[in-house]
Design brief:
With 271 residues, the protein is an alpha+beta fold. It has 4 domains: 1-26; 33-126, Cytochrome Bc1 Complex, Chain D, domain 2 (Orthogonal Bundle), CATH 1.10.760.10; 135-187 and 246-265, Orthogonal Bundle (Cytochrome Bc1 Complex, Chain D, domain 2); 194-240, SH3 type barrels, CATH 2.30.30. The chain has 10 helices and 7 strands. The chain has helices at residues 2-24, 29-32, 40-53, 55-58, 84-93, 109-126, 135-143, 168-171, 174-182, 254-265; strands spanning 153-154, 157-158, 194-198, 204-212, 216-220, 226-230, 236-240. The chain binds heme C (HEC) (2 copies). One heme C binds at residues 50, 53-54, 56-58, 70-71, 73, 78-81, 87, 90-91, 95, 98-100, 103, 115.
Amino acid sequence: MRWRTVTRWTPVALLAVMVGAAWNVQPAAQETDENPYTSRIDTRMGRRLFQEQCSTCHGLNAAGGNEATGPDLTTGSFRHASSDAGLYRVIRDGVPGTSMIGVGADAQEQTLWQLVTYLRSREAANAVVDLAGSPAGGQQIFNGKGDCARCHMVNGQGQRLGPDLSYVGNRRNPDELQSDLTNPDAEVNPRWWTMKVSGPNGQQVEGLRMDEDTFTFRIMDADENLRSFSKYGDWSYERVKTSTMPSAEGSLTATERDDLVAYLFSLRRDR
Ligand code: HEC
Ligand code: HEC
């Protein structure tokens, strides 16, 4: 029958085309593909996608349920992939014959790479690393000279003018923590933007932007007081998108920063 002939020959013909193409063009582009989406925002996007689409099987932080539901993806070694491009393919195509379906060939390239970026960040966070600093020394600096508790909470102690750092070691690796300390303005989540408000008689109020809609906004000042303002009153306001966190570059020595990183990296939730 005619259709049989067609189905038997098509793969061969396809193969010939592919071989021809590979011969004429570049060799297997996928293998050498580098991930173009590796910023902190991409990690965050990847985490969100992961929590929506993958966490039911692989656990909220990719550390896995068990082999049946979905393995731990934070160990740094994968059975089905050794490179970023390999991971990309597993996430897209799944693992045949298992409940790992894959997101499918229709998925956006960016989405797939962001998932790869997120998985790489998780594995870096769990790598056994030899850090120069001392966690105990870092803890003292955190609560003393570094004045970090003025803005950050760790296990219920401290203030809320910056992110809670109780589990910061689960989401930031040591290199990222170093740059958090010395370059706080690099990527500031809108959650941590501030508002500068000026009144008609020269009053100045400044605080974290807590919420904002078309007509009003609310800020929290340095004493954690909440204040609401109308956007159409006689007070003017200005958004500030830099971090309120001072850089530790000048105020702390490199040794002190290493200690802080060792301390922060030790702040993690046991799996
Ligand atoms: C229905 C459950 C399920 C969902 C949902 C799921 N996975 Fe999986 N995943 C599995 C299972 C089971 C395996 C192990 C397959 C095997 O036997 O090798 C696996 C394997 C993997 C592997 C390969 C691990 C290795 O060692 O090579 C990666 C990477 C992975 N999953 C990523 C993801 C990502 C990213 C998502 C979300 C887009 C996702 N998975 C969604 C169940 C799931
Ligand atoms: C005046 C308030 C303030 C002080 C003091 C401060 N921080 Fe921050 N910190 C913030 C804010 C706000 C952010 C979030 C915006 C950003 O990314 O910089 C932040 C972010 C961070 C982050 C990144 C957290 C994450 O989840 O991404 C780390 C780590 C950090 N701070 C550590 C420290 C340490 C250690 C000190 C003391 C040396 C310190 N901070 C002092 C306000 C502060």
